[in-house]
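[Q] Does anyone have a clean structure-token version of this?
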Amino acid sequence: MSVDATGAYLFVATDVDGYTSQLRVYSTGRGVPPTAPAAPAHSILNISTRLRVDTGDNVGIGGFIINGNAPKKVMIRALGPSLSNSGVAGAIADPVLELHDRTGNLVAQNDNWNSHRTDVLLTGLVPQNEHESAIIATLSPGAYTAVVRGANGNTGVALVEVYDLSTNDHSRLANISTRGKVEAGDNVMIGGFIIGGDQPTDVIVRAIGPSLTKSNIAGALADPMLEVYDGNGSLHAQDDDWRMYQEQPLIDSGFAPTDDRESAMILQLQPGRYTAIVRGKDNSSGVGLVEAYNLNSN
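[A] Here you go.
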């Protein structure tokens, strides 16, 4: 089970033979579903990932890229306790959020969002629990990393999110790539993104595992599988090994994974909400990376 980035919908997945056979979508009665048409064409308004946050190297690490020639105002949130309200078991009790630039310098950090209550209230994206974290920042184009860990070393399931608060056409959210522990059952990795505008957008979605060992990541997921669902919970596409269906187009794109067991798909998606689920083949577990690239962000 998982909630979407706004808290308005609950996704409940059932599993058969390693693939999700059905994804049901329920209204939670909370939050406000986003509306995409007011945004520029080919824009991603929100990117989020639900994952297991442990200690050490297995904290939640979300990277995102801003393309363009103008600063962009964003909001990054780390949710934990409020996930329990939507039936997610083992939610992290007190997530702490850090934002780093591409050089590793700390840009901002937050433990409890109430420390800058007025700024958060003005966004309309208020976390439901005072122990959850939020950062509002105006960022120059470039690569950034959001790190989610538990206060005092606590662990559990968390949701890390990035919202575009300035939907101008001079800079765009181009990518999110989140690394964390992928387990079986409810603790698979779930990534969400919202495509804005009124035109289809070309996106590459990837699930990375074995190649993480080249970056000295211990316990990498041996064989990740990837599924993409639309906002109604219908299965849009799925992939096990990236060479199965789109080998040459992926190679031509420059985003082909470096290990044959990893998953990737090129998708043309209509405006709306989408969910990417990463799980291990044969219910295996390990550290995985879920990524979504906006190919029309330049």
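[Q] Thanks! Anything notable?
[A] The first strand starts at residue 2 and ends at 3.
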